[in-house]
Design brief:
With 179 residues, the protein is mainly β. The protein is built from one helix and 13 strands; from the N terminus they run βαββββββββββββ. The protein is 4% helix and 47% strand. The longest helix is centred in the first third of the chain and has 8 residues.
Length: 179
Amino acid sequence: QKSVCINPETFTSYCQQQTAQENIISTCKSYQMCDDKKLVCSLKQGLCESKSDCGSDEICENNACKKQLFANLKINSATVFNTKYDKGVCTTVFEVTVENNGSITASKIGWNILDSGKNLLGNFPIKEIKPGNVFTLYPQVSFKKAFIPVFVIDIANKIPESNENDNALSFKNVVGCFN
């Protein structure tokens, strides 16, 4: 717990309906007088002046520690849905499922298909995925050489997530058109 020495005349942010003196008493776990008619206050659990007063998974908002909520995007599966070969070009449609197992909606989601050499084969935006929902995509890519696809969600890490380490899924087999 953090102890702070506060001037009662200026400290009103924790409780707006009481006087400054009552504020400190009502929001502190313990208090005592210190030099120059100030109070020493040990903040009650859950109260804060800055993020450092809160737990590692919390933020300080309106002088209260609140759990920080995150989305968590994960590519659950990817399979070949359909493949066509025409004049030396292979076109494959994949079926890809993406889940948000976080606690808030993820919006404006970018996701990509990369070849085994990390070259971009396709970029496919998703408007949003609500918490607990699974979204199924059918992206189509055209190519001339066989490759191992890697599916990556939120490649630029623009969406704060509780786990940034589960955003990629590498295909198990080579994809290509074989005559």
